[in-house]
Known about the structure:
By secondary structure, the protein is α+β, with helices and mostly antiparallel strands. It has helices at about 5-15, 65-70, 115-125, 135-145, 145-155, 160-190, 195-200, 230-240, 245, 275-285, 310-325; strands at about 20-25, 35, 40-45, 55-60, 85-90, 105-110, 205-210, 215, 220-225, 250-260, 265-270, 290-300. The strands form three sheets. Strands 7, 8, 9, 10, 11 and 12 form a six-stranded antiparallel β-sheet that branches. A four-stranded antiparallel β-sheet has the order 1-4-5-6. Strands 2-3 form a two-stranded antiparallel sheet. A hairpin with a 5-residue loop joins strand 2 (about 35) and strand 3 (about 40-45). The chain is globular and about 70 Å long.
Amino acid sequence: MNEEQENEILAISSIYPDNFSEIETIIGDEEENDVQDDNNNNINNNNNEYSKTYQVIITPNISYLEENNSDGDNNGLVIDKSYDYFIYFKFKYTKEYPSSEPPIISIKASWLQKSDQSILLSHLEDLWNQNELVIFQMISWLQEESIQILNNHYKSTKKFSHYHLKKSLNNQQLNQNQQLNQDQLNQNQNQNQNQNQNQIKEKVPTIYTGQSVTEKKSKFQAHLAIVHSEREVQLVLNQLLSFKKIYEATHNMYAYRFQLENGEINEYYNDDGEDGAGDKMLFTLSKNQAKEILIVCTRWFGGILLGGKRYVHIVNTTKDILNLYNTNSLSQCSLEYN
């Protein structure tokens, strides 16, 4: 790593101390990661400073939409502020950066469609000029300009973001249901105040916990619940996080699929900082045609990087507990988090 790169990393880590990290590489295991050159000779990447990948978790500015989407036009980007809209920006230095090569960059977020990612990456790549450090400029652009660019794209193509609209409508329905529940609560209070607390307590779906898997001091464990609404999903997540052991875990990534009354499938995933894990879990649910399932995979990091092997454990624990559900064998699971 040259001096300019070192200074840039120092600056970025100082400006974003809570959101900056050096992360595990996606391909292979860091302790055993070898690649081949053009002559098929093995090149050991251990301690290779140019194999390091850095990540900054960015929260884009969505206030632009409040100021510019009030013209009655139904097209554009729809944001529901009750959800977290993080962008995971990853970058990796090339040997000749910044003199003659750009950094290697990628972005990912559960709420971004692939076409959205392509649009944003194209703009980021245009920011680079030879002999200029660009990482801070890219982060700032994602914070301040990305939402505006995507919104303008959807408006110019006379489309709207299906994901955001869906989540927004789901949340509106949830709010309506909560309001109905509140109205019923008020009515019950008038009828019998002494019995009120017992009547309004919501039932949390049963949480089934599978066997844990441990490798190099990292522990993985999957939890499954049968759910039919986003409210039930939230109840399960709240229940799990009420346990100190789960709350203090490094990651609690999850995915769910359930069928709506109109026959459509509502599906969603959350990486919880383990970039790329949630979509693999959701793919597993989809492949198994799950229609009433929430799976949470908890990881306790043991201090030793696992590289790509961590995804093997996340997917396998997801498959194992889903197989117990499919074979009516959930009785083999623990009920410790109910």
